[in-house]
UniProtKB/TrEMBL annotation:
Short name of one Pfam family: Aldedh
Gene3D superfamilies reported in the protein's UniProt record: Aldehyde Dehydrogenase, Chain A, domain 1, Aldehyde Dehydrogenase, Chain A, domain 2
Cytoplasm recorded as keyword: no
Domain of life of the native organism: Bacteria
Originating species: Mesorhizobium kowhaii
Keywords, in A-Z order: Oxidation, Oxidoreductase
GO molecular function: aldehyde dehydrogenase [NAD(P)+] activity
PROSITE patterns in the cross-refs: ALDEHYDE_DEHYDR_CYS (PS00070), ALDEHYDE_DEHYDR_GLU (PS00687)
Record protein name field: Aldehyde dehydrogenase
Residues covered by the Aldehyde dehydrogenase domain: 31-490
Family: Belongs to the aldehyde dehydrogenase family.
Annotated coiled-coil segments of the chain: none
Length: 495
């Protein structure tokens, strides 16, 4: 684990101006424009990034296409790709302190969470796909004796990756690692408010021996660079994590351009269901509080809708309030902070707008609901709980992506299922019960890509993450994620 002394030293590091990363080197944007990097810790700029444009995306895509066609990566032996990616994982671990602090300065995640979720998770993900790739086989079809049918797995070509600002390194690795392992070349569009760790990742990849052009990073505004990547005629696929409206635009861009494949992991409004027989109400309350309030609620799978069975409602709410008020919100680079900053002033304003709307619609504020630590200049918000929430309220229907929890009570299992599924989303969920039959019935009944049982979060790289309904249809993590970065080619051979 990182030490406070290391954190305090690294937070003073001068970052300066960062350019784009194209064809194995840092380069200025075509127009030379820049964007300030403002830390949510104190509201002050501490670096700048290139404000890329469509011409920069075109440069990056051309670099990736040339590298792909050259074949030094795409046609290399899987064992070679494995060696380079393992070396990259080792370099990320070597620079974990630097990467963790850099990311926290950028997006405000508390350092204790960021250290594990960003560099260490990214290194583990890259190592996982590196170790897997030389164990992936093609197939021989069950044909007649006079025919040999072979099914080859080939890389797609150029893959565009667009990631959000909450965990850019972790989520970036979920997409970059399998795409590279499969032999593709990649163009990454990082979030404009959290680009620094992905730029550093590209530098480390070059140091690890990744050929020039195989991994490119173009920073800038999503409305400009993201659109250019989505519309580019020489991009073969887009892997995206983010909001539903942007996901819809990417599908439109695919239709308007070359019908590129689009893999979407979108938002959630995940139900966290506590039955009366939950094993250990106190522990369930602690985990549930962390499941919505860690990283200031800026987690796509956050348990933002809490459903509690009526017979234990009062007891559970008392435990939940106790667990919530014990959370220390503060400087995310202080190891004693349980919750860090909201990612930006804009996101904080959006969160407070949800609070005002919930109160206006009749929900009862239990705790929080306000900006705190304003004297720091940073974007901090008290963990917020509303009860008496009904399904028609905005708070029950729309993703806040902030530390705001809506609580409902239910009487029966059937009512819990109805409430859980009465949303356009279907990303994650949780069920707390000591009854094995109840648990299995709920796993089957809840419309979500992930159902936690007697826990919330923690699923590792071995299982897929993705949703149903308007949470999208992309799948990250596990060996299944490799499938979307391959093309299948049939060889039908008369003998």
């Amino acid at each position: 684990m990182i030490s406070q002394n290391a954190i305090d030293a690294l937070r003073k590091t001068e970052i300066g101006a960062r350019g784009l990363f194209i064809n194995g080197a840092q380069t200025d944007g075509t127009e030379g424009a820049t964007l300030p990097v403002i830390s949510p810790i104190d509201g002050r700029p501490f670096a700048s990034i290139a404000d890329g444009n469509a011409a920069d995306i075109d440069r990056a895509v051309k670099s990736a296409r040339e590298a792909f066609d050259k074949g030094s990566w795409s046609r290399s032996a899987p064992a070679f790709r494995k060696k380079v990616l393992v070396r990259l994982a080792e370099l990320i671990e070597k620079h974990a302190d630097e990467l963790a602090v850099l990311g926290v300065r950028d997006n405000g995640t508390e350092i204790g969470m960021a250290y594990k979720a960003e560099p260490l998770s990214a290194a583990g993900t890259i190592r996982y796909y590196a170790e897997a790739i030389d164990k992936i086989y093609g197939e021989i079809a069950p044909t007649a004796d006079n025919v040999l049918g072979l099914i080859h797995k080939e890389p797609l070509g150029v893959v565009g990756v667009i990631v959000p600002w909450n965990f850019p390194l972790m989520i970036g690795a979920w997409k970059i690692a399998p795409a590279l392992a499969a032999g593709n070349c990649v163009v990454v569009k990082p979030p404009e408010i959290a680009s620094l760790t992905l730029l550093r990742l590209a530098e480390l990849a070059s140091e690890a021996g990744l050929p020039a052009g195989v991994l490119n990073v173009v920073t800038g505004r999503g409305a400009v660079t993201g659109e250019a990547l989505g519309l580019h005629m020489d991009v073969d696929a887009i892997a995206f994590t983010g909001s539903g409206p942007v996901g819809r635009r990417l599908l439109e861009y695919s239709a308007r351009s070359n019908l590129k494949r689009v893999f979407l992991e979108l938002g959630g409004k995940s139900p966290n269901i506590v039955f009366a027989d939950a094993p250990g109400l106190k522990q369930a309350a602690v985990v549930s509080a962390n499941g919505i309030f860690r990283n200031s609620g800026q987690v796509c799978v956050a348990g933002s809708r809490l459903l509690v069975q009526a017979s234990v409602y009062d007891r559970f709410m008392a435990e939940l309030l106790s667990a919530t008020t014990r959370l220390k919100v503060g400087d995310p680079l202080d190891l004693s902070s349980d919750v860090g900053a909201v990612s930006s002033a804009e996101q904080l304003d959006k969160n407070l707008g949800f609070v005002a709307r919930a109160a206006a619609e009749g929900a009862r504020l239990v705790t929080g609901g306000e900006r705190i630590l304003a004297e720091t200049g940073g974007s901090y918000m008290a963990p917020t709980i509303f009860e008496n929430v009904t399904q028609g309220m905005q708070l029950a229907r729309e993703e806040v992506f902030g530390p705001v929890l809506g609580v409902m009570r239910f009487e029966t299992e059937e009512e819990a299922v109805r409430l859980a599924n009465s949303t356009v989303y279907g990303l994650a969920s949780a069920v707390w019960t000591a009854n094995l039959s109840t648990a299995h019935r709920m796993v089957r009944a809840i419309n979500a890509g992930v159902v936690h049982v007697n826990t919330y979060g923690g699923a590792d790289i071995t299982v897929p993450l993705g949703g149903v309904k308007q949470s999208g249809f992309g799948r990250d993590k596990s060996l299944h994620a490799l499938e979307k970065y391959f093309d299948l080619k049939t060889a039908w051979i008369a003998l």
